[in-house]
Amino acid sequence: MHTPVLLDQVIKALEIVKDGLYIDATYGEGGYSQAILERGGKVLGLDLDQDQITKGLDDIVLVQGNFGDIEKIAKENNFFPVDGVVFDLGLSMKQISQSGRGFSFKKLNEPLDMRMSLKTEMTAKYLLNHLSETELYEVFARNSEEINSQKIAREIVIKRQIKKLDIVANLINCIDSAIGEPDNNVYKRIFQALRIQVNEEFENLKNGLLGATKIIKEKGKIAVVTFHSLEDRIVKKFSKFPGLKLLNKKPIVNRRGRSFEKSAKLRLIVKDIL
Ligand SMILES: C[S@@+](CC[C@H](N)C(=O)[O-])C[C@H]1O[C@@H](n2cnc3c(N)ncnc32)[C@H](O)[C@@H]1O
After folding, report:
1. Measured from the CB, is residue 143 less than 6 Å from ligand 1?
2. For residue 66, is it within any domain?
3. Strand, helix or coil for residue 83
């Protein structure tokens, strides 16, 4: 069982009540779900990736689905109104190291797939080989704010005329040619930007937060753990909607977060009386 970095802080903030209803919107390996069940809460676990929900915990409703559809999924399963929702964004270590879908810049022979759900039609390979230079630049700049986005987009368009990009090594090769030397931070940002695009992560987050407010009780809490400053910005902006408030002005931060990211940030949104 995986222990998420901000587990204690999230569980404390959610103030789990016995027989209360909670949605773990990013089930993964079930770290939050297990902690909620141990405290007597009831859990609906949700994950976009079918491979993440093969081993369910006892007494849990487990659904393969997109948290962008959280309202619909909760209603279909007659699991609402809920006391709390937790979103732990991004990928699990298992997905990065074992999925074989090209999420990590270190797995040179993996295909440039990057889909969290194999039901998604878009792949990183399609984007890299079909978007125009401007479109590629926009994907990189918008999703990662990488300063070399323009040069990298240009290099991809030049290199793909000779041979289509197919595996991770091909993209690394384009980045190296564009920036002149290997740089893990640039690789990380470009890979993350592509993954965000393939899986429409920012749109899903906005829809997921909105959906969560529709199925949560008054005074219910939404805990969101982000690993990306642009995601944190979306959460912060969302919390300013009427009827919502942030429990802490500043996010709770874990600087020892996953090695491939700077830090994990926890924000807590509470549904106030409208
Ligand atoms: C950081 S991991 C969660 C780890 C989890 N808290 C644990 O204890 O193992 C993020 C999970 O969210 C899932 N995910 C990402 N986007 C999703 C979405 N739009 N809808 C549902 N699940 C999603 C990923 O497939 C991954 O399993």
Report:
1. no
2. yes
3. strand
pLDDT digits (tens, 9 = 90+) for 109-150: 999 999 999 999 999 999 999 999 999 999 999 999 899 999
Whichever domain contains 68, its CATH number is 3.40.50.150
The pLDDT tens digits of the residues spanning 39-82 come to 999 999 999 999 988 877 788 999 999 999 999 999 999 999 99
Coil/strand/helix, residue 23: strand
Lowest mean pLDDT of 2-6, 26-30, 129-133, name the range: 2-6
Please tell me the distance from the alpha carbon of residue 156 to that of residue 151, in angstroms, as a whole number: 9
Does residue 84 contact residue 63 with C-beta atoms inside 8 Å?
no
CA dihedral in degrees (3, 15, 67, 145; nearest 10)? -70
82 lines ligand 1 (CB under 6 A): no
Mutate to test the pocket of ligand 1, among 92, 198, 231 (most ligand atoms within 8 A of CB): 92
Q: Which of 179, 198, 217 is the last residue of a domain?
A: 198
